[in-house]
Specification:
Number of domains of chain A: 2
Radius of gyration of chain A: 20 Å
Number of strands of chain A: 15
Oligomer: homodimer
Order of helices and strands of chain A: EEEHEEEEHEHEHEHEHEHEHEHE
Shape of chain A: globular
Helix content of chain A: 10-25%
Chain lengths: ~350, ~350
């Protein structure tokens, strides 16, 4: 049965230099395989588009292996089981996992996590209740550790993680300043997400805006972007500040090597720390975090924001929106109706 | 009486660009003032020459005010009281404090700390029992926190702080790799100070040498130098590594801005931290640390290394040795016989 279904997929054709282009992808059509014992066949419904995907396209040692040339592009996604050879998975069950940029996936049970569409809309499982939510939760609470009344600054503030970080920091009683690109995003994080203020890095000098908005310095800086904005934040740290390194999206397409933070000696003068983390290290605590996040969502104290684009075939262009900043909240590709 | 004594001092004449030159100094001769109530007149015996002095010469906001033009250059020193108007200070007492680059200093009691020449030779109070010792002790034990069997790498390994850091890490059961410039210094840290190995950054590729010497990665990197060596160490971090930012001597005379660590994203991949500290924050624990250090010195388990140059007039040239690396251990200027 399944073998008669044709599956469309985006496979990595070549490794990009700078921004990925159409030429870096092969769009292929092949029959779907049958699930073996312990596997399920899953219809892909929603694909998560993440900055980390750019790194997976490079042939470089990192926390996971690169995607091989010819391989289906790796992607986290939500799907529905349409055939199963594992007793715990029934046809109709909803699951999340690394399903890849394609219409159908055959996946081992151990790579799938069951989710409940009655608790939250499916896209929220890729946003506040998914990786961005867990990243914001553990990065802010475990690494940043803001205290009530402290000043938290977050870059990429209108993005999937940044928007959640700011809201979570507000829930903990901190003052929150967001950094985002353009007046619309700045209005969005203040009016929609409840940040105390926002800095438009495309229109303002970030360093002087931070001096104005953070007269007592920055206690927690949550960095999603790297580059000059990280430098501006380092220059404004308060004593004992914590810098959380979550990403460096300004640098992922750099062709001449990453720019290091010139102001890192501010760590010394201010007795501050800069710490990296990987959300996957907290996998044993996802349940606990998810329950707390779900409670805030249900009570309307937290908003999960998704920007949903429809159509698998738009993948190459939609992915670029991550780097051009043409989205608010979590960027998701809808592959099929549930 | 005192007012008849002529004092010679080095005063800041102009702010250097790059390495300080003779032209940046005024060598002045003036009568010594009388101590007022609560003050003492101190004969300066030993001056500590520190990389931090270069920063004090800049007109930049930092953890202390810059030295003003025309002001006696700030320096930590050891001296002997020759006149006193404070009951706790007797003529003949030995003291440490910020006495300045001069022959005599009039200082308030609160700026002086009494030391005991029977416990250790006076220069040791500027070395293992002074700032370098406290810096190594708290930077390594409080920030770096090496565990037995872990790999510790220290740059500036033949310097005042680096040589102590390596020895302290050995005392805690760590494997210690030093980075230093030239074969003599490398031999010195291995043969004299007991490091497990040394890398000559002037002759070897530091990145590949670190791969060879640290097959399981670096658990603690204690950085005194910044620049390319910091980058090479970042590229070799082990999971959960701690990078201690103590200094960046390779950058202090940079005229085109500091080079930031391009490999800082290694902090993310390796869930590592980079933390700055200031030894003065530990002032309440100097006593505790000093007692432990004195015990190790007495039992021959720790060596305090000093490189002593004689003559106040050599100050401008002797200071440069810090940046050209022409010294082993703590660089000290002897101003007078005790």
């Amino acid at each position: 049965m399944a073998s008669e279904i044709l599956n469309h997929a985006f496979r990595l054709a070549s490794r990009p230099v700078g921004l990925p282009t159409r030429e870096n992808w092969d769009f292929t059509e092949q029959p779907v395989g049958e699930p073996a014992d312990g596997e399920a066949l899953v219809r892909v419904l929603y694909l998560s588009l993440d900055p980390a995907m750019r790194g997976w396209m490079n042939d470089a040692r990192s926390y996971v292996a690169p995607v091989a040339i010819g391989e289906v592009m790796r992607a986290f996604a939500i799907g529905r089981v349409i055939d199963s050879r594992h007793p715990e998975l029934k046809v109709g069950d909803h699951v999340s996992g690394l399903l890849g940029v394609q219409e159908y996936a055959v996946v081992d049970r151990r790579g799938l996590h069951k989710i409940d569409p009655a608790l939250a809309p499916l896209p929220v499982y890729l946003s506040a209740l998914g990786m961005p939510g867990m990243t914001a939760y553990f990065g802010l609470f475990d690494v940043g550790r803001p205290e009530p009344g402290q000043t938290v600054v977050v870059s990429g503030a209108a993005g999937a993680v940044g928007g959640l970080v700011g809201q979570l920091a507000k829930l903990k009683g901190a003052r929150v300043i967001g950094i985002a690109g353009g007046p619309e995003k700045c209005r969005y994080v203040v009016d929609q997400l409840g940040f105390d203020a926002a800095i438009d890095y495309k229109a303002e000098n970030v360093a002087s805006a931070l001096r104005r908005h953070c007269p007592d310095g920055i206690d927690v800086y949550f960095d999603n972007v790297g580059g000059e904005i990280l430098d501006a934040a380092l220059a404004r740290l308060a004593r004992n500040a914590r810098v959380v390194i979550c990403g460096a999206i300004s640098q992922y397409n750099a062709t001449e090597g990453i720019a290091g933070p010139r102001n890192y000696m501010s760590l010394l003068v201010n007795r501050a720390s800069m710490t990296g983390f990987m959300v996957m290290d907290y996998v044993n605590r996802y349940g606990e975090a998810g329950r707390e996040m779900a409670g805030w969502l249900e009570r309307g104290e937290l908003q999960s924001q998704e920007d949903i684009v429809t159509g698998l075939s738009t993948f190459p262009e939609t992915l670029l929106r991550l780097f051009t900043g043409e989205h608010n909240g979590k960027l998701i590709l809808r592959v099929a109706e549930d």
